[in-house]
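pasting for the record
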Amino acid sequence: MVRAETAPHARHLRYTLWAFTVGDNGTLGALAGAARRDPARGWQRIDVTAAARRWAAAGARAPLRLLLDCSGCGGRVRLRLGGGQAARPLLRLRLMPPPARRRRALDCDAAEHGRCCRQTYYVSFSALGWDDWIVAPEGYYANYCRGACLNYHSQVVEAARLERAACCAPVRFSALSLIYFGADSNIIKRDLPEMVVEECDCP
């Protein structure tokens, strides 16, 4: 949105605001958007969505530059592109979230043989001899990741290209709530982050 101010005697003036893209060398590019005068408001809305999409699709390597022009203004319209806070132009961006990445099957029991998956693994505090100071829980599923990320042939090619192959690794963890006796025999509750492997993939 851009603030367009007209003189009192030119309130019924008809004009159109144009926005063009500007190339790196200062050349005028494609039409980015246009808006006819809305007499109900001083702020005029120009939709530059198509230009922003083309810019993003091209890799967004250079800044997106826009040039505003007013057709039919004849010097009777002032475009406020700076100055006070109330007159600064506004660009509203609506970002679309990236598509959800499909994860491997959570558990190895349901995964294709040899593929990256989460293997359940239970840690018993009693077996470790820690049950004399850990009140709860008696143990927990720590889990770990195993399996291959690529089939054999593609893994060889990928390893040759990147000098390493992708590894099956944890991509999501959860915390473990632990209740235990402290040094002064007080009972302490603590949440230990990233103690449980929840999901595995090939990052």
